[in-house]
């Protein structure tokens, strides 16, 4: 994992699909689970979605809260 990947989860929007436009950090768990079962996209997007899946699956979404707060205060 690159140090900036957590920051990218709260600043990168899903580029396609049912949740197009939603921040990766806000994708629902069932959608992340679908990617885990069916396969993550290639490249950085896939790495970010896989990271978000791990955070969600291990109940660690709260780790993104400080980064969200920085985004809203800008």
Automatic annotation (TrEMBL):
This is Cytoplasmic protein. It comes from Oxalicibacterium solurbis. InterPro entries: QSregVF_b.
């Amino acid at each position: 994992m690159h140090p900036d990947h957590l920051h990218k989860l709260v600043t990168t929007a899903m580029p396609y699909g049912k949740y197009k436009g939603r921040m990766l950090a806000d994708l629902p768990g069932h959608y992340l689970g679908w990617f885990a079962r069916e396969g993550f996209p290639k490249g950085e997007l896939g790495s970010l979605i896989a990271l978000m899946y791990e955070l969600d699956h291990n109940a660690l979404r709260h780790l993104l809260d400080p980064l969200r707060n920085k985004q809203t205060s800008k």
